[in-house]
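FIELD: query
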Amino acid sequence: MRKILPYLFLFFLTLVGCGKQVDLLVHNANIYTVNQNFDQATAFVVKDGKFIEVGGEELVKKYRPANTVDAQGLPVFPGFIDAHCHLLGLGLNQFKVDLKNTKSIAEVIQKLKSHQSTYAQKVIVGSGWDQNLWSDQSLPDNSKLNEAFPDTPVVLERVDGHAYWVNQKAIEMAGIDLSTEVEGGQIAKHKGKLTGILVDNAIQLVNNILPEYSKEEKAKALINAQNLCFENGLTTVDHAGMHFKDIRLIDSLQKVGLIKLRVYAMIDNDPESFDHFMRTGVVKTDLLNVRSFKIYADGALGSRGAALKEDYSDQKGHKGSLLISKDSLRRLADFLSEKSFQMNTHAIGDAANQMVLEVYNEVLEQAKDPRWRIEHVQVVAPEDFQRFNSKIIPSVQPLHAISDRKWAPKRLGSNRISGAYAYKDLLDWSGMLVLGTDFPVESVSPLKTFYAAVTRKSPEARSFEPPFQAKNALSRYEALLGMTRWAAHANFEENEKGSIEVGKFADFVILDQDIMRVEAKKIIQTRIVATILNGKIVFSNRL
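FIELD: result
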């Protein structure tokens, strides 16, 4: 099968024949339409960037296409949608020290020194460290950072984006001392000294000393990130939290054709962005949809910032903290509901999820089709699952369950872990859920997301390793819906995308294996043959 890849999508064949003139005919394919009946087809026709007919080989004689693709029996799916990610963050990582998968503080220091010897930056910025991968899984202090970099500020973002690890120079430049307090954040101290760990809202104190990226750097970052998305079969991404200036930048790049990727942009809940979109209202083009706000109810489990009902099992006396009060969340929810904006709230701990569910149910009682979302939904108490319903969509990231399985049981204990990463239970109560990656926290690949959702295993796991809480695995049918039609519905775009149907954008992906039928272990060996957006190739695999 792989031998045909170089010939399949290097170019479209131009044919002359009879019938109606169209732009593209794809035939001899195994097409998963993902429509309401989950029909399969073998051919479809595209004109002006949209599907105009879906059916069988009879379409070959019915139309006169400018371009024809013989898919040679390969599977074709709707373009994949990542329902929760950070496109700009992925692109900006090129300017930072990559600390993902580092195994010790010593390895982090070595990477920082190597980077600084090459770039000699005024502020050293890194991202991706995770203490749970180290032999000592406690949060680090900054003593080693201070020794290595006494005069250069160092700011290192944890893999979840909810904690910084900074050196003394950065602390001094940010004006932080032992008396500094931040509502909704933590400034870690030990034996009367600052450790250099800042959690949740406290990181804003250090953001003020970070260098500003220029518009040109951000544009380059967005274009590079877009190319990675296309290489992985993504045609739409839901950007989870953006400042209004960055949204305007994406819009400007889309208008001149530099960004072709479709973006569902959740607005950051900062005063500038809030005021801007309260004035302008919803923004909708074929490529950009701005009609939702990203709100934070709590922090992350990995840095113990997630708000729990009871103490962390591995840190007595600590429950994490809410980043917004219930009254404030309710007022904000009422306001957004009146303005017809979708509310997408980050909630990880069971206390945060309970609060958000209570507020959502109160505010949405009379709403007909609000489609409000809870992002992550990592820990839910048994009594709170019943608060989910068709008005509330869980937005989950299956790779998080696999990445966290080694340490999450220690954080939560044996009882609470059963209600964590419970995707099947969430689906049963809500009737729908959407899947994302949270990249760059996890891999960009939707195929890895699919694999993790249906196997509850890491793509790197050995065959004998047991799945993590297998009862909450999704079927392949459910996982595919969560990356296509359901994701489009959660974005109010079900009439435009998410399935291969007449009238919808001709966004689709061709794979070299059928992920709906191959052995589970072969899913992660599957390659993207081509990614097509509006009936035009944006990525083809020529290797």
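FIELD: remark
The first helix runs from residue 5 to 8.
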